[in-house]
Request: fold
Amino acid sequence: MKFVAKLPNLEVLKLKSYAFQGLEWVPTEAGFCSLKHLLIEKTDLVVWEATSNDFPCFQPLILKFCRMLLEIPISVGAISALQRIELHYCSFLSLQRNLLNSLFPPFFQVGQNP
Reply:
């Protein structure tokens, strides 16, 4: 992932069907400086650590089938460009719906969560 983060003009990143593997993701310093759209779908990710400096241009953050992810980094809410956070079939995160809505009030949307 550190090589992808260094692509200076990368605006859209869609990580689908275990394209990202591992239990933890800590972005490298000064990466993803132009990334506007991030989709993470079907992953075994449990811990995601990030600061608002790691993704300064985020607009939508879309998480689908991230059943093991424990939390969204709190610093994501400080990203000035952020427009929305969508959760679809993220079992553990959907249990924290009230907390997430209070942390990211204008951005938070929940899709289907059985």
User: Anything to note?
Assistant: The two ends are 31 Å apart (CA to CA). The chain has one domain: 2-110.
